[in-house]
Design a protein that fits this description.
- The protein is α+β, with helices and mostly antiparallel strands.
- Helix content is 33%, strand content 22%.
- The chain has a 5-stranded mixed β-sheet, covered by helices on one side.
- The radius of gyration is 21 Å and the shape is elongated.
Length: 144
C-alpha cells in the first residue's frame, strides 16, 4: 500500500490527536492542506473510530493502583519505546477495566489493556501445575 504525503500527514495528525482530549465534537485531520472533519470524508464518525484506526497504546502486565492509575508495560505508544514501564493518569472509570478493554484516563488518553498482571500470574501458576501433573503421569506410566 502506497500513501501520499498528504495521506501520511493525515494519518500522523489523526494518530497524535487520538491521545489527547478534543475540544470539538467533530474529530478533524489535515487533508490536502486544510483541516477537515474525518466524517466528511467517510473515514470515521466517532472519536473511538479514530483511536482504533490510529492504534492506541497497549498496556500489558497491568494493574490498577489505589489512585486508579494503570501501571504496566506499554507498546505502540507514540512517544515511548515498546517495553517501557508506565503509570497513566487516573482512569475515568477504573471499574470498567479488564483484559482486552479500551480505557480512558481522566486526561483523555486512551489505552488498550492487554493481559493483566493477575492473569499473567494465574497463567504461570496453571502452567507449572500442568508440568507437575504431566511429570506425575509420566512417572505413573513408567511404573506400569
Amino acid at each position: 500500500m502506497k500513501l501520499s504525503v498528504s495521506g501520511l500527514l493525515a494519518l500522523s495528525v489523526a494518530s497524535a490527536s487520538a491521545f489527547a482530549p478534543s475540544s470539538s465534537s467533530q474529530p478533524s485531520t489535515f487533508i490536502g492542506g486544510t483541516f477537515s472533519s474525518l466524517s466528511q470524508h467517510g473515514v470515521a464518525s466517532s472519536r473511538q473510530g479514530i483511536v482504533m484506526m490510529a492504534g492506541v497504546p497497549v498496556v500489558d502486565e497491568w494493574r490498577i493502583s489505589r489512585r486508579g492509575e494503570i501501571l504496566g508495560v506499554v507498546t505502540n505508544h507514540p512517544t515511548l519505546p515498546d517495553g517501557d514501564l508506565i503509570t497513566t493518569s487516573p482512569l475515568r472509570d477504573p471499574s470498567a477495566s479488564g483484559d482486552n478493554k479500551l480505557v480512558t484516563t481522566k486526561s483523555g488518553s486512551k489505552y488498550k489493556l492487554g493481559t493483566s498482571d493477575a492473569t499473567m500470574k494465574q497463567m504461570e501458576k496453571d502452567r507449572k501445575a500442568a508440568e507437575v501433573a504431566a511429570k506425575k503421569a509420566e512417572a505413573a506410566a513408567k511404573k506400569e
